[in-house]
Amino acid sequence: LTIFRKDYIAPGFWVDTVEMGFDLDPIATHVATRMTMRRNHDSSEKNLVLFGETIKLLQLRMNGVNLKKSAYSIADGKLTILNAPDVVTLEIETVIAAGKNTSMSGLYVSNGNFFTQCEAEGFRKITYYPDRPDVMGTFTIMLRGDKKKYPVLLSNGNLIAEGDLGDGRHYATWEDPFKKPSYLFALVAGKLVCQEEKYKLKSGRKVLLQVWVEAGNLDKTQHAMDSLKNSIRWDEERFGLELDLDRFMIVATSDFNMGAMENKGLNIFNTKYVLANPSIATDVDYAGIESVVGHEYFHNWTGNRVTCRDWFQLSLKEGLTVFRDQEFSADLVGTETGRAVKRIEDVRVLRQVQFSEDAGPMAHPVRPDSFVEINNFYTVTIYEKGAEVVRMYYTLLGHDGFRKGMDLYFKRHDGQAVACDDFRAAMADSSGHDLAQFERWYSQAGTPRVKAETSYDADAKIYQITLSQTCPDTPGQSKKLPFHIPVAIGLLGADGKDLKLQLEGQTTTSNNTLVLELTAESQTFRFTGITQKPTPSILRNFSAPVVLEYAYTDEELGHLLANDSDPFNRWEAGQRLATRRLVKLTNAVQKGEELELDAMFIEALRATLNDTTLDPSFREVVLTLPSEAMIAEEFAVVDPQSIHTARQFVRASLAQHLKSDLLSAYENNLTPGKYSPDAVSAAKRGLKNVALAYLLAWPDDATFMLAKTQFDEAQNMTDRLAALSGLSNFSGSAKNTKAAAQSLQKFYKDFKNEALVIDKWFMLQASAYTCDVAKVRELMKHSAFTLSNPNRARSLIFNFCNANPARFHAADGSGYALWAELVIALNKLNPQVAARLARSLDRWKKYPQNLQAHMKAALQKVAETKKLSKDVLEVVSKALAS
Ligand code: ARG
Ligand code: ZN
């Protein structure tokens, strides 16, 4: 079942042109395909190989002649034609039961409309085809369908013809001028409406921009349109990359496995990343839309114009495009702190989700060596760690150096399907920087640990830092070789200011921050002219995806939190102070000891909270404690219940001691007037709502009323949801608890026609500590719940299994039993979604014996299920083998 990177063979045949005609019908869509192909003489594959799955083959003609059954074979999803001539025209007719396709891969129906999702291997569910990214052709598509049911007919590229067919049906013909791999093919057909605009590019050329949605949602498309225009402008300005089509379309569907898809000229999106207006979307939603619209748009160059040779190279496009969308969002905020807060948010996800993946049974390199099901490898490692790898080039080469590398990459590879090594070569050749060892970031899995040790020689005025690196074993990989790690460092004086840095033996001009290049297992760096013992600020702006170990004292961390010129490390110092306490308190909970929070920590947070020279968004992230999942990473054996208790204790203690400060922060950060999602207003709401959440952790009637009033009078979803979240986590007097429950009901009633808001309603309940397994089962019976819609399944089930650890890991194993039931149910409906849920038990070996036993039983139950998809099988068998 396993496919290996080392087995790559170039395709036996290339495709030049592809013409397809679709007769759209949910029961039986007929697809007629004609493609011209020619032999690749450089390949060792002599046969003509096409892939096909779940489709019925009606006709197969080669060079005008019907192929007899004996001329080809079909086995294991492959159609092989033996002895094909060097130049071939193939004509294929297939039938698809799109209406019955619940996998949301290939051609499927959602709410009566047709959509496609072809990445990674969905095109083979449409026709037999060399469905691999290194085979690129020029596509012309004719769509035919009922005029009333499918008034809108869309595909990639430009609309070249449309008209009536006379029999109640009509047609549209689309031509994509760029050759592309089949995974970028898309069609959309149905009842949709659009917001559109003519937009002028920097070059003066005008393009048509459209955002397509179901009727009734046109009041929710403005932000996506704005985000698209911002994306177009940003890519022109930052990378000199222009939109290459005359028309660019975004279409939203409520049934989608992932966030969105970059099909050439016809991006298809989950509604979650398109629809927004102040009454249904939060600030976080607005930011998510901006970044996903950007991400898909940026793929037009990094992914579409230059694509991947094979799926092992997936991070070539995904890591790079995530880096680009991160930079886009950071540039749009504009301020230095805004940038840093964006960086902090990205690093949080990396640490919480990717570091955990890297330490578990599904750990894999950024460029994997093997997989069973490629859909399982759209991971935080490929995406987020991949983006960190790209960011390290940026850190090593600098802003202009990186741009030169990008320019060379496009100059060399535009129109090609290439590998991660080609990107690295462009970065190396354009800069002259030796990046040979840097390759290990692609080939070795696992999160490196960098240990720092320092010493100061007052007489010689030399400050010395020794950095050593190790990397834990991962499945199939032991004995890692040293990585090439950029370690950005600064040294703070007693006054909190940066010292000028001069490396011994180097003539470069002195600087506040230096990027040290750690390439050996251990290396010592010496700074000269240091007149006082400094506090080191190491790994500034998180310059590499590693765990940094350094024996900071509380005083040093306090000094960094109060002064570091690098806002990332300033935040980091606060997180280190918090983590230390949370670990100690978790141990104390387990031992039944009395819990206490020290004044030093409380005062450090008070100072930050009250420092109005700091941006509210920065104060918000400093005030936010590491999540329960983050704290869990600190333990060899995880006890979710004790972690929860310890964290709640810290929240309540802070609330108690900082009550008046929190109340002032609340009052001082109100945003009266018309809602705007801009960074300044969003930051204020963020800080205000964090203050509110704290106040509710040490509640009295007045703070309860504050939340209740905010809920009742909110003018936007951000404030409404924040208040409701506080209320639904509320435990206090019976009267208040009842009022909280009523608010939850009112919210449902008010928004029952807004699917994305009902998702929030489920999500909020699923992740509240008040929600146990029985409560989830009760919510599953709610008329609004369904497993068939991925967003809805995620909102209740995934949130419970992933974001409510203290309840999911119930001692009796009932959480895991529920998990097994649902993985099995989803496996039948939608293997991709099932496999995502299956990952919730990845780290089962980290829990106490009694929980492990329950988890193992649940994993085995799933593994023994008949007709298990490759997707789920890969995940559970890797977990069980760990
Ligand atoms: N390329 C898409 C994106 O990153 C994601 C597609 C994922 N598809 C899948 N079947 N796993 O924007
Ligand atoms: Zn992507």
Automatic annotation (TrEMBL):
Aminopeptidase N is involved in the degradation of intracellular peptides generated by protein breakdown during normal growth as well as in response to nutrient starvation. Belongs to the peptidase M1 family. Its EC number is 3.4.11.2. CDD domains: M1_APN. Its cofactor is Zn(2+). It comes from Undibacterium parvum. Residues 82-184 form the Aminopeptidase N-like N-terminal domain. This is Aminopeptidase N. Residues 224-441 form the Peptidase M1 membrane alanine aminopeptidase domain. It holds the Pfam family Peptidase_M1_N. Keywords: Aminopeptidase, Hydrolase, Metal-binding, Metalloprotease, Protease, Zinc. It is an enzyme of class 3 (hydrolase). InterPro entries: Aminopeptidase_N-like_N, Aminopeptidase_N-like_N_sf, PepN_Ig-like_sf, Peptidase_M1, Peptidase_M1_dom, Peptidase_M1_pepN, Peptidase_M1_pepN_C, Peptidase_M1_pepN_C_sf. GO terms for molecular function: alanyl aminopeptidase activity; metallopeptidase activity; zinc ion binding. It catalyses: Release of an N-terminal amino acid, Xaa-|-Yaa- from a peptide, amide or arylamide. Xaa is preferably Ala, but may be most amino acids including Pro (slow action). When a terminal hydrophobic residue is followed by a prolyl residue, the two may be released as an intact Xaa-Pro dipeptide. Residues 446-550 form the Peptidase M1 alanyl aminopeptidase Ig-like fold domain. SUPFAM superfamilies: Leukotriene A4 hydrolase N-terminal domain, Metalloproteases ('zincins'), catalytic domain. Residues 554-881 form the Peptidase M1 alanyl aminopeptidase C-terminal domain. GO terms for biological process: proteolysis.
